[in-house]
């Protein structure tokens, strides 16, 4: 009686897949198997493994090119924003009066940055000869919640907040970004708005608006002795 050799056990698909992951070069050494492989196509046809790989690589290449294109668009937008911000800051530094300061900010935001709604409000216990001014008490009563954190606030604001920041145009504003003008005290508030309620979201980057507010906060006290410094 002779011993019979045990027949090899069939490999399951998971074992084969695990082996190929560990040996991605397998078909390089066994390229004679490639013509025999068939992978179902979405349309019900069959394609070779090489064709499938080429298709996947092409799709990934297209996806990567789209991502790169998006990043390039963002970089160009940021470059344009930086240039506009730089020009505005230089104009503010060259301003010789409160009227020029207010005019620089409002004109630049509307014309250069294409912001449809701009609200620049200065805090003063006495009326100022230029721009819009209110007492600090009135401001805190109307928008105290927006000023409390000392950070830029973005999103859909309450109706009375929109009206305070943008006047009669407040009913047309869908969303806004608001930042306090604070440097050794709170001297005012700057707000920009859009008719689109989704334009200024809470996740929106406010880096450039923050830069403008910081410079404006340091420039304003030079020309506006009556401005109220609220600590």
From TrEMBL:
Stretches that traverse the bilayer: none
Official protein name in the record: DUF484 domain-containing protein
Record InterPro entries: DUF484, GAF-like_dom_sf
Provenance organism: Phytopseudomonas punonensis
Phylogenetic classification of the source organism: Bacteria, Pseudomonadati, Pseudomonadota, Gammaproteobacteria, Pseudomonadales
Pfam family, one: DUF484
PANTHER family noted in UniProt: DUF484 DOMAIN-CONTAINING PROTEIN
């Amino acid at each position: 009686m002779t011993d019979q050799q045990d027949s090899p056990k069939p490999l399951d698909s998971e074992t084969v897949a695990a082996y190929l992951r560990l040996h991605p070069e397998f078909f390089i050494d066994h390229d004679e198997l490639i013509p025999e492989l068939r992978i179902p196509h979405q349309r019900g046809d069959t394609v070779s493994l090489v064709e499938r790989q080429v298709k996947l690589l092409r799709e990934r290449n297209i996806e990567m090119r789209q991502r790169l294109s998006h990043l390039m668009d963002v970089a160009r937008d940021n470059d344009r924003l930086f240039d506009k911000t730089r020009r505005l800051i230089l104009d503010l530094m060259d301003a010789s009066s409160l009227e020029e300061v207010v005019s620089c900010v409002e004109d630049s935001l509307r014309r250069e940055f294409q912001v449809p709604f701009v609200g620049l409000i200065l805090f003063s216990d006495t009326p100022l000869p230029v721009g819009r001014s209110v007492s600090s008490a009135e401001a805190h009563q109307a928008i105290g919640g927006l000023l409390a954190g000392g950070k830029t606030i973005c999103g859909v604001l309450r109706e009375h907040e929109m009206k305070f920041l943008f006047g009669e145009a407040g009913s047309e504003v869908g969303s806004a970004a608001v930042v306090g003008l604070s440097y050794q005290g709170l001297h005012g508030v700057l707000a920009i708005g859009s008719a689109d309620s989704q334009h200024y979201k809470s996740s929106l980057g406010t880096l450039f608006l923050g830069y403008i507010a910081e410079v404006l906060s340091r420039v304003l006290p030079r020309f506006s002795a009556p401005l109220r410094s609220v600590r």
